[in-house]
Predict the structure.
Amino acid sequence: MTQQPPPPGPGFGPPPPQYAPAPPPYAPAHPPYAQPPYAQAPPQQAPPQQAAARPDFLAVDKRNAVVVDASGVAFETSGLTVEFRWPEIRSVHYRASPDGKALMVAVVHMDGRFYECVVEARPRTRLQEWFPQLAWVLGHYRPMG
């Protein structure tokens, strides 16, 4: 099945608040060595060309995660991480779980070994957001030729 990747967007942005680490309760709002907020320069953003040149994909739930980026594919399952570099990957496959509640991603290693990671999509509509993003990122790093 051949699909055209969607046009590059502004990026995926920061992780949702529930996945971002909470600041320590003892941290002051402004460290004593920092300048007041009005004196700080705004953070520099990468030009859109650089952001589009190195896309990545992240799907995460309470126990599992799938990351696809310039280095390859990484699965995290219950705290264990397995990384697959692009030169050792024969193919990457993905689909919805039979009940439609999760993303199933499989990596086939060059020697034929098969690895799979399942990430629950909550809310369920997130699964429909992940499919075009994942297709575009995989198409960027592994174009079908």
